[in-house]
């Protein structure tokens, strides 16, 4: 394990590699206890640089021998690197033989065991845990790989590219040879040796070529792979249609693995996936799980072009592939819904995640630009900023150059850089050059501040109506974080009359026909826009479809927001109005020491949304869901999580009571009677019905009613799909209903052999709203449960990560939450540093807490900091938290 204070790696220190590796010929004698790796590398000196020693990365390896051009050479170890004096020849063959111990590899980086199989994860720096190498993305080699293993134990042997040979060896062993024609960086290398079966499908792309698609899973899981396969085929079709990017591989494989640190990995031609993003049947997976599979399968598939064909020069450029690929998978998911309102529902979900996770990150100790400047452990920078904010940066480019312009920019990017390892600047330049008259091109330097500056910009908007002139002047001001310069903000805008009618947007100096929606582009701190030809007061609808990732202060009154909630033609802003109305009430209630009674106008507005004849049920579900405590905490200073939680619970209780009849109607009116399908037309109805059920069971606590809890219990028993079963169970558990216990027991008994469903069981209990310390007590109890283990990341996340993001169950006034947190960070760190450093981020925002919490949190973080042994991953997070 890499321990202690690793040196800070700076973006400005980038240097081209001193050597290139042209080909890598690898032979593995695979065995869980001891795997032998023989590597033969064709290496060339980079003659652009002065002659220097060959320094190879390597970690946790047992070196057996080193040969150059067949001769043994001397070597030394320096700062964790294997150093060889510069060979005489500019081109030579390096042969290395080493062993590794996959079964001891609990970090799940490099070659490791999961169940009875062996799997790899190399991004970002796992390849150096397999053999010595120049483990950096700008070194690209053509790989050929020979795998040898026991045939019974490991009947399936896979690596990247094409299978060129296979056969039996003596002593019950067999072999397979793979060759990958595409040069690739080591982080895209993969090996699988396991007892698996595959769903197979041949597809023909537009060029008339046939390709084999395979999804490998454990025996017995084959019928759970249909949705993943359909998603893969849809992704192939979409990328070819929208971006003219065809499948370039003869064979595209997906392998599902139980123990995996992340969602999935885009290894060339051999994607490895967390089972969570492959396996689904209606009985075991929820609507959200089906959507998650569709989007992750697409994401990894899209990486084949944006990531693999063009990769990153260095890890500071991570968003080059991740931001762009998230943008692409978001667009795909939106296109797949097939309706405007379902598209908006996707967008709302994406923005919700961005604001809860990324905005918090950008305000805390881990704040970093989309293109970071420095890191200790690169694995800590697979963040919401690099991914989600990075995707928003690409989305703004798309807004600025339009759909056609964006497609042209992509085409130019591939024309210039296919096969190369490049930078974020190269991408932005291609986009700008393909659209020379766009704001992107004319203000490219201002735009590129999005890559360089951390923090969430604030945008203030104030409007003034001039009745005499019939004009409306909108003043937009941006406030970047201290030290930051103004950024380029595309601000999509519409104006509505008080009666809800959309107004023409005619700027004072313009002539010609005016539309009712347009994008204003800010490049300076302040801009003023005057719209003319207006006959009355207007309500501005700004940042439509969330056109820039900023915090907006538009000073709108409740009355204004009610107009937008009733009439805005942009579904995102319509939803946003509902959230703003809720937020102001929740913040006021949290700040007051008295329970606050909810006002009738707000309740009536929610009722109108719920009963609206034309709105989509999925939209209604989102508009009637209160902002999360995590979101609200970012809108406050000196947060008292218990007070906030109490305020939120109290508002929910009142909405449950005052809208009781409406919830009962909603439940009945949104039952799905046709056969299960995870399509938006059904999932929206299920979501709304489940929200209604939760509110009705909550209200039963007040009224003493037993009918609704009884119905929920019945639904837990009879439901024919997991969305409804889990929805009913959630209603009982979240309301702390008496029937929750028997329902939980039943659920456990029924699904104890399905790890992914069992994860839901843990998650549900750890994520329940706290009440009298019961949720925290339950978390402690579940840590001792025979089904709990820290060795499986999904299980650890289900219990511990759910808990440390559950505000009132984690931030306790007696500090017991923080004490447990410190204990578990350390325990996890000795098993799996990447996982531990993620979990450690649960206290990122400790400085924003009220004093008593803050002091207790500081103490817990300091305790972790003082531990004698800490991985460099966890060390970086903890040090930054205390800085
Ligand atoms: N490239 C993968 C993806 O976005 C994720 C890899 C994450 N790696 C890590 N070390 N956290 O699909
Ligand atoms: Zn990715």
Automatic annotation (TrEMBL):
Segments forming domain Peptidase M1 alanyl aminopeptidase Ig-like fold: 455-553
A GO molecular-function annotation: alanyl aminopeptidase activity
Domain Peptidase M1 membrane alanine aminopeptidase: 228-436
CDD domains for the chain: M1_APN
Catalytic activity: Release of an N-terminal amino acid, Xaa-|-Yaa- from a peptide, amide or arylamide. Xaa is preferably Ala, but may be most amino acids including Pro (slow action). When a terminal hydrophobic residue is followed by a prolyl residue, the two may be released as an intact Xaa-Pro dipeptide
InterPro entries: Aminopeptidase_N-like_N, Aminopeptidase_N-like_N_sf, PepN_Ig-like_sf, Peptidase_M1, Peptidase_M1_dom, Peptidase_M1_pepN, Peptidase_M1_pepN_C, Peptidase_M1_pepN_C_sf
UniProt keyword annotation of Hydrolase present: yes
Cofactor: Zn(2+)
Xref: Pfam families: DUF3458, DUF3458_C, Peptidase_M1, Peptidase_M1_N
Key words, A-Z: Aminopeptidase, Hydrolase, Metal-binding, Metalloprotease, Protease, Zinc
Start and end residues of each Peptidase M1 alanyl aminopeptidase C-terminal domain: 558-883
Hydrolase is among the record's keywords: yes
SUPFAM superfamilies: Leukotriene A4 hydrolase N-terminal domain, Metalloproteases ('zincins'), catalytic domain
Recorded superkingdom: Bacteria
EC number: 3.4.11.2
Family membership noted in the UniProt record: Belongs to the peptidase M1 family.
Name of this protein: Aminopeptidase N
Source organism of this protein record: Ideonella paludis
